[in-house]
Every structure is written in structure tokens, then in C-alpha cells.
Amino acid sequence: MEGRIPGSTIPTVEVVAAIIRKGDNVFATQRGYGEWKDYWEWPGGKTEQGETPEEALKREIREELDAEISIEKLLTTIDWDYPKFHLTMHCYICSLSSEALHLNEHEAARWLSADTLRTVNWLPADNQLLPLITKELEVR
Questions:
Q1: E runs forming strands in 97-136
Q2: 3-state secondary structure of 132
């Protein structure tokens, strides 16, 4: 879903992101296309007209990873200004409903622990989540 910030000429892009947790690790993906190629992100994507964020997230994960997820909770919503658009990203803690994952859009993926979260080059908005995710991983 795209909109505009009141008084702004740059578009707002609304997306959803899955922080897929398995034990003490979270699943990160590397972009294989576009201006931000090779940067790391949480899988997900744009919401479509009429979709709830949760419906959009489940659809995006099916499309990107051929996987089914269970959404556990909304972690936070990040607002971030990129040069060409404003991003509103709804970030959810999720778990896999099955073990199968297949990269349909990304060039690489990794399971990262709290200690290894900062070993990849994150997109700026996704990077904002690292302190919250570190806290989540420390809680069992």
C-alpha cells in the first residue's frame, strides 16, 4: 500500500517484515536485485489493497520462501526515510510451520544469532530492529 506523508512529495510505502525465529536464531535474507542489491533484510514485502498486514506477510513469505509461517506478535513498526520514499515497516516475530525454505527472490540467506546479527550489511530501516531482536533472542 502506498500513500503520502501529509505535506510531503515523496511516496510512503507500507511493508511487512517477518523476523522468523528458530531457537536462538533469526532468518535473514540478502537482496539480489535493485538499488539495494547485496544488502540484508528481513523477508516480507508490500501490502496489497484490502489485505491486513498479517495476510500480506503470510502471502509474501509463501511467494519469497515457499514457506508457511505462524505469526506470534507484532514486534514494532519502523518509519524510515529513504532518498526516494518513506518506508513504514510492520515487523512481526514469526516461526516456521514447516522446516522447508526456498529462496525465490533472494541471493542468500543465513540464520543469525544475537552475536552474529551485526555481521551482515543491513538495509538502513532493517538495521533499526537489531536492538529489539537482540532483546527478543535473549528472552526464552
A1: 106-113
A2: helix
34 lies in some domain: yes
Closest residue by Cα to residue 132 from 85, 83, 91:
91
Structural domain tally of the chain? Answer: 1
CATH number of the domain residue 94 falls in: 3.90.79.10
* Model confidence pLDDT, tens digit, residues 18-65: 999 999 999 999 998 888 999 999 999 999 999 999 999 999 999 999
Taking the C-alpha atoms of residue 121 and residue 110, their distance in angstroms, rounded to an integer, is: 12
Domain with 56 in it: 2-113
Element (H, E) at 133: helix 130-138
pTM, entire model: 0.90
